[in-house]
Specification:
five-stranded mixed beta sheet, 2 domains, 50% helix, alpha+beta
């Protein structure tokens, strides 16, 4: 079963993932069945990730880049906090605790965003 997403423009659950790159025959068939949308061979940083098959609206999933930037920033902060101690074990423990906390934060955020999608 193919997952469909609610379009932010028309509100209909007919959004599909956009696949970029040279399509295989299987991908072409999936596109014809309305399971994916073809985005072309060139991939850019700001290209949309989903397309509504009903109205044609295309959009990006904002949480992907926001989550990654937040995670990197959080890990950098924890790394700096952990490096203050001189003991190598303190450093490792502090970094691992910060990493675990950051991953938990990202997972909670993603779950919240996924619940808003439905």
């Amino acid at each position: 079963m193919v997952r469909k997403y609610i379009c932010p423009a028309c509100g209909i659950k007919s959004g599909v993932n956009i696949e970029y790159g040279y399509p295989s025959s299987e991908l072409m068939e999936a596109s014809e069945r309305g399971e994916v949308a073809l985005g072309g061979c060139c991939i850019g940083d700001n290209d949309p990730e989903r397309r509504c098959l009903h109205c044609g609206h295309e959009w990006r999933i904002k949480r992907r880049s926001a989550d990654l930037n937040a995670l990197v920033s959080y890990l950098e902060d924890r790394l700096m906090d952990a490096s203050v101690g001189n003991d190598q074990n303190d450093f490792k423990t502090g970094f691992l605790e910060g990493f675990r906390s950051a991953v938990e934060h990202v997972i909670r955020f993603q779950i919240e965003q996924d619940l808003k999608t439905y």
